Amino acid sequence: MDYLKTNVENGAPLSEVEEYLVNLELGRFEDALIFYGEIHRDIFDKNYTRPVVSRIETEDLLNRYLLRTNQMEKQNIDSLCVRIDASEERQEYKLLHKTLVYLDFVTAHSSTTQNGNDIVVLNYNEELSSIEEFLALMKKYIEEYPYSDHAKYLKDLFVEPYQKYLDEQKQFKQDPWGQKYYTGGFGFYLYTGFGFMTGEASDYLKYETDSPIIIGLDFRVKRFDLSLFWSFGYITGYNFNKCDVDLKRMSSQGANVFGREGSWAVGASLGFVAYDSRYLRVEPFAGISSLMYDHLASTTLVPEFMLGNNVDFRFYAAQPSSVGNMSYSFLLRFRYMLHVGSVKEHCCNNGKDFSAVRHSFAFGIGAELW
Fold this sequence. Notes:
The protein is an alpha+beta fold. It has helices spanning 2-6, 16-25, 29-44, 61-69, 74-85, 91-108, 128-144, 151-174, 247-252, 346-349, and strands at residues 110-115, 118-124, 185-198, 205-221, 224-238, 261-272, 275-276, 280-292, 299-301, 304-317, 328-345, 352-369. Strand 1 (110-115) and strand 2 (118-124) form a beta hairpin. Helix 7 (128-144) packs antiparallel against helix 8. The radius of gyration is 35 Å and the shape is rod-shaped.
């Protein structure tokens, strides 16, 4: 190695990586760290540019031997760190060298992406103990040598993403569904229920529920839920106890003054998940709705302001295969809706507006992509 290094300028085949690995073989750890530290600064420290070095690398016996015996495997890393600890390097160099060795190891076994100046860990396919060791070494080095050339980029790029990844993986082992709480998804719901009307309009209109069918769709982003629903099975009609009208004339004009016919309703709301867990989710919401009186041509119901609450019980949830993977669940939903609006009733009261408050209670089953 000394002969090749002496003749590098004359074209001797010795790459910097080969020189580093040979220095490790010979126990020249401080010489090895000079190149090892500089190459990491050049890659990760945006304020440092390493001088260009021109070396020739040849796939010869030395090259094949060094690459074969220094593969990024855990036993090799552990053995190297033991040798570094037993060397005569300064304590700062020992700690930095081991930190960078573990950095290369965990990075080699991770799927990472660059997000601006940040390193984001996507997947790590080794035991989490290596990340724990890497974080412990790195934090110790940053704490003891905060003004060194390597402390800043280690702290800025690696501490937070690897700590976050480690915490997520530990949480996943303890509760595989924990990562799903307060997250997005898509849901389909089918339920029935009952309701009644209060307010002044109830004196002039009949409103009943005959086992209505309600179909709902939910689109979730984090803790927010955009919900759409359509329902049918409401029974509406006139209550003429307080109406002074000519029923025969209205009937001859085609108004269904005596019948009880079905009506339908639509609505949209925005909810906020106040509580979420493995089996229970509570979600208050606000929105608009409208009950359509199709057969009562002279009566219109303006859009209503709606308040309500969903209480969901997950009775089954598939375990996600890993952090971030999709799951699906089935749940029971109990839903209350308060609809506040007004009715303009032409037949009985010459176009006056009356307050109308509808109370709806529903329960059913749903399926979600989670």
